[in-house]
Design brief:
Elements (H helix, E strand, L loop, with lengths): L1 H9 L4 H19 L9 H12 L5 H21 L5 H27 L3 H9 L3 H23 L6 H40 L4
C-alpha cells in the first residue's frame, strides 16, 4: 500500500500549480519591462493582439498561424510522452502556458486601460474553455508516461494503444478549439473592441 501511494505521489503532475505560478509571472513581467519601452513587441500575447489587427479574421492565413502557434508544442508534447523528455516538457509547457495567459491580461490592461480585462477575456474566449482542460489532461498523460520511462518501466504494447487512442481523442478536441479560435473568437473580439471604444 505504501509503495502504491509513493508511486502515485511521484507521478502526480502539479498542472494547476504550474499554471498559476506562470500566470503570476506573466502578470508581473510586462509591468517591469513596460517601463523600458517594451510596449507591444514581445511574447505570444502581444503577438495575438497585433495579429487581430493585421490579419483578416477567418482567413486561411490566420488559420495557418493558429495551427503553427498551437499545433507545434501540442504535438511535440505528445511525442515526448514516449521519451524521457516528456517530464520536463510537460512542466515547462504548463508553466509557459500560465506565463502566456498572464501576459495577455497584463498587456491588455496596459494597452487598453480599464477595459483591458474584457479585451483579454475576448482574446481567450471561447477556445480556451477547451484548451485549458485539454492541456491539463494532455500534459498529465505525457508526464505519467514519461515518468514510467524514467523508472525504467518502459511503455508496454497495451499502454501504447491506450496512449494512441487518447492522442486521437485529444487531437480531435484540439481541432474543435482551433476552429473556435479561427471562426468564433475574432467576431467576439471585434464586438468587445467596438464596445471598448465607448470608454476611450
Amino acid at each position: 500500500m505504501e509503495n502504491l501511494l509513493s508511486i502515485k505521489k511521484k507521478s502526480f503532475f502539479p498542472g494547476l500549480t504550474l499554471l498559476l505560478a506562470g500566470f503570476l509571472a506573466g502578470m508581473l513581467i510586462p509591468n517591469f519591462i513596460y517601463r523600458f519601452s517594451w510596449k507591444q513587441q514581445a511574447f505570444s500575447a502581444v503577438y495575438l493582439l497585433e495579429t487581430y489587427g493585421k490579419t483578416e479574421a477567418g482567413g486561411i492565413d490566420y488559420l495557418l498561424q493558429i495551427l503553427w502557434m498551437r499545433g507545434g508544442i501540442f504535438f511535440l508534447s505528445l511525442i515526448c510522452g514516449f521519451t524521457v523528455f516528456g517530464v520536463p516538457m510537460a512542466i515547462m509547457a504548463m508553466f509557459f502556458t500560465g506565463i502566456g495567459l498572464g501576459i495577455v491580461f497584463s498587456m491588455s490592461i496596459l494597452q487598453f486601460g480599464l477595459t483591458g480585462g474584457a479585451v483579454a477575456v475576448a482574446l481567450l474566449f471561447p477556445h480556451y474553455l477547451i484548451y485549458l482542460p485539454l492541456w491539463d489532461s494532455v500534459y498529465q498523460m505525457v508526464y505519467r508516461e514519461s515518468m514510467g520511462i524514467w523508472r525504467n518501466h518502459g511503455i508496454f504494447p497495451q499502454k501504447v494503444s491506450t496512449y494512441l487512442l487518447k492522442v486521437l481523442l485529444y487531437t480531435a478536441l484540439y481541432g474543435v478549439g482551433i476552429l473556435l479560435e479561427w471562426r468564433v473568437n475574432p467576431w467576439i473580439l471585434n464586438k468587445i473592441l467596438d464596445f471598448s471604444k465607448f470608454f476611450e
